[in-house]
Amino acid sequence: MLIVAFKxxxxxxxxxxxxxxxxxxxxxxxxxxxxxSFLTPTTVLELAERLDAIPDVIxxxxxxxxxxxxxxxxxxxYTGTDSVILRESRFFGKKVQYFSSSxxxxxxxxxxxxxxxxxxxxxxxxxxEGLTGKxxxxxxxxxxxxxxDVMTQPGAKYAALFAICDPTFAAAGSIPRLSxxxxxxxxxxxxxxxxxxxxxxxxxxxxxxxxxxxPVPKExxxxxxxxxxxxxxxxxxxxxxxxxxxxxxxxxxxxxxxLPQGIPLRIxxxxxxxxxxxxxxxxxxxxxxxxxxPCANDTGSAIGTGIDALATLTGSPHISWxxxxxxxxxxxxxxxxxxxxxxxxxxxxxxxxxxAGRVVAWVQGRWEIGPRALGNRSLLADASSAASKDRLNxxxxxxxxxxxxxxxxxxxxxxxxxxxxEDPYMLYFRRVRDTRLKAVTHVDGSARVQTVSEQxxxxxxxxxGAVASRSGTGVLCNTSLNFNGHGFxxxxxxxxxxxxxxxxxxxxIGNDWYHRxxxx
Length: 520
What we know:
This protein has helices spanning 41-50, 103-114, 154-165, 180-188, 198-209, 234-258, 275-283, 301-314, 347-355, 386-396, 413-416, 458-471, 492-502; strands at residues 2-7, 13-18, 21-27, 57-61, 63-65, 72-74, 85-91, 94-101, 122-128, 133-139, 144-149, 265-268, 290-291, 340-344, 360-363, 377-382, 406-409, 429-431, 446-448, 450-452, 475-480, 506-509, 512-516. α3 crosses α4 (180-188), α4 crosses α6 (234-258) and α9 packs across α12.
């Protein structure tokens, strides 16, 4: 059975699942399209070209939105856990099953179906994202038997704080920006929530009690110290730290009070990309295990709807999947040999170039699903030089307070960090132990590490081994390879344009290493 699933709205994407195996997950923002893009014809055609049959099931994720792209309800709508739409339809002349379930169910079933394939009498799914902030208790037949409402719009409230503090954000009529939650996550590390005074605390309490921040009611906060204070100011960072602490505590207290102890927790929704919160869930001690997929946000919603269709039609939601389920890199041109010298990849020589301060655009295989570069569409740099962080943020045209994540060999975890568990999808916080790793140590001493083994990413592991032979520690800076405001680069022409515009002198595409003539 071949299922093709669609996610409408922002973060538009498609997924193909055949007989319980994820074949592709394609997000419309990838290949240098705008971040958070709606589903595009290009994405549909890219997937259609790679499938050898017309699907048996067309699965459409529910959505609800007004505007120029979507008006009203799409499919089964945004919320709800009980009803699905299942009917006969036709797709290019073939009889198919049309399936639709709610957006909330896409997160619930995605979290369950991508988790280890074990049956549990009960398991909990936390869906916290822009609109939804709920726990769902799921039985061994994968039915939601209880819904626990915790907070409306947690992700939107998180982004709304950034808007309230940002003098460039309009005082009325504007909705939270999708990119601001990640920025606030970085800023929260710059302060101690214990430093919040009574006025900041009261303002955060007011924000948490709001039912709706669409649009952001910024004008209502004019009488607080948060209004236009500046996101990097002491007030702004302290408020960010306090909101981060308070929001987690509200959800954690609810979990302890309302959910059985010792059951597994699956986490979905955009807030599942907050590494600090994920580490706190793992350390809470209330759950037997915690699982977060690498595409916890809406980039995994098509997969979740496909999993829901699979479970409805077969009784089992579990799929086999690989994080590298995007498209192969497109070699649409050969770099101009008058500007780019070519040689075969030599891991030892490349490690020496990195140690000398060069930044490398690193491309291997198929792109990563989800928003984080995991060694197939990455910018790599020396982790021991503090200058690497500033250089990478400059290249990416990002704010200087944004941290740079490390990629680390599993063999080096115990020496470099305070915890040596594997985290191949860069989803958990840990403390940096090795003081040499200046570029990847955030202001609070933390790092969000992608752990790399020969099994999870053989090519990057080999390069990190060469780095370890030279420096003693197999750790590099690893950040996404993309134009600012766009998804991963996925073709040579874009890569060359990017590197020449941003001053990157080295490109590795598979086993081909290109160095810019006249570069450092």
